[in-house]
Amino acid sequence: MRNFGNRPRMSLGAGAGWIVILALFFIPLATNRYVQYSINLTLVYMVLALGLNLLFGYTGQFAFANAAFFGIGAYACSLLTVRLGIPFWFSLPLGGIAAMFIGCIISVPALRLARFYLAIMTMALGEAIQWVLIHWDRVTFGPSGFQIPPPSIGGLLLSSDRSVYYVNLLVTLFIFWMARNILGSRIGRAFVAIRDSEVAAQCMAIPLTRYKILAYAISSFYAGIAGGLYAITVGYLTPENFGIIQVTLHFCMVMVGGLGSMIGSVAGALVLTSLPEILRDYQAYQEIIYGFILLFILIFMPRGISGALKRFRWFREEIEKLTL
Amino acid sequence: MFFQLLVGGLANGSIYALVALGITVVFKATEVANFAAGELLMLGAFVLYNCFVLWKLPYLASFVITAFFFAILLGLIMERLAFRPLASYGHLIQVMATLALSVTFKGIARLVWGSDILNVPSPFDFKPVEFSLGSLKIVISSDNIAIVLVCLVMMTFFFFFFQKTKRGKMMRATSENMLGAMLVGINVRRVFATIWATGTVILVIAGVLFVPISTLYIEMGGKVMIKGFAACILGGFGNLPGALLGGILMGIIETLFGGYVTTAMMDISSMIVIALVLIIKPQGLFGSRVVIKV
Lengths: 324, 294
Fold this sequence. Notes:
The complex is a heterodimer. By secondary structure, chain A is an all-alpha fold. Chain A contains 15 helices and four strands.
């Protein structure tokens, strides 16, 4: 039984969690430039997978627009810096808010739609956003993309991958903590109730509209923040980065990790980000492997890594104590 | 200008109608929205290119190999490897599987044919038709005529197939009520296999016909698929005549956007149609209102 409301006491799992978090701060001491870059990218995808899992795994909304919000966040954040000179610490949340704003607008027609209609509508939105990024070239620099200068925070220039790592790490930890608190609260339980049965949720006086909009808002905010982090990690943006392959990748991460499991999303991002970096020059193999992994997980492990782990009693108890 | 655009839109529209037909056939029976539709179309186009241009087979032979041997085999393999094991998990998981297949197909095609943009010479080399309407002169290219004609033949064939043949009736019965179909002795599993094969054949034929009026590249499927879905939504999802009319309308809307606004608008017209229809009249032009009972 999940321990709702009162705080769980410090368990073995929680202790291990704190040690892992502490250890994360010392990772840059043991990496070279390339490994560091991959780790930075992994953190970006963790934020993305958490956001998508909130909407898809917890609230049960089958939406394809995650890559679009990712793109909006990335472009908004870096265009504000490049065109208007707004400092990075301020443009990052602004990028998230821009994505959240579009997400809220989209959620209003999406509320009336169920199942595949929602999927098609959000897929069309993804194409539309990409179209805007390509054709609004007076603002977005068009199809060839643009370079992002290294951001600075309080006079500190974040020019190396290691300094970017600390930004990404702090934001990711904050986002993870936020998601954990949201999901452990009344809001998270309402999301799960809506996923399991909309009718039952309505019967228990959960306002569907409000909570669905909230789920879209949080999810698109996360994707927008991930976009901002992606921009400073990679340093170069083109509209192609935010196409349908991205959506498939995000779904892959959430499914590999396990639907409705936060720790699963983190694990999924970890597993699937290292892979494309190894195969970066072979797009064909990348696509084939993504497709096969997703298919394999769907057929043989529909609950993902976290579902497989939960078969072991000890893991299940520790994971549940952490309300992950 | 208007009539010329209308004629051009008809050819594109026929392709979208075929794509919508392929999506609807599968959707009606299995309730799976096939997001691999674009990639099946792309594979069809590339296999035709392989037979017709690389192996220099005659066009008719390439057509038969692509549209029948290859497509039926592919449809059966897809059903056996992906959709049969997932049949008990619900539609969402199966839709995810179509997504996984679409990425895999893209990768395989990239591996075999490379990422270049290719061109296939048109196999239809009769003279373009010209006629005048009052003071207007309208030219219809041979490709457009051939495409519209072949599409019409295909549509009639499939209508006949679904309405009159035993196999088609079995497919419709399964899509109406799976349990009932089982009870009257229909082999539902085999019907599902037939349905996936039929859907694949339709999509592959759409790809084969699309080749002469389009360039050939790996990402060609995505845009066509969105337009196919737009056509389905415009005609009411799951409605066969609606899907066909929706497809032709979609092609005309798209060319009118391209002709009167800007060509860049052509790509976005399908999104505008999807958004407007879903916001204003979600059941589409010909669909009936779906009431979900609790």
